[in-house]
Amino acid sequence: MSFKLDRTEIDLHRLIVHPSHFRKGIAQSLLDFVENTYEVKSIRVMTGSKNTPAINFYIKNDFYKIREDKIDEYLTLSYFRKDMI
Length: 85
Description:
The chain is an alpha+beta fold. It is 25% helix and 38% strand.
């Protein structure tokens, strides 16, 4: 996991779990740690728009899509945010 913390927001850069450890609750534990350790107003994250498992994970954790950017014909990025207060 990698993130940037400022006074009011966490920008979650990476939350990666090795495929051989998928579905063991590791990603949830990492996100829970960040949410319970830092008092911020929001958390934001970006992932590939075709990364269905990541998108489902963030939506399940009360993130909502704020925008989508088409980079080129092969890559579109989806941006999500979760309000903490």
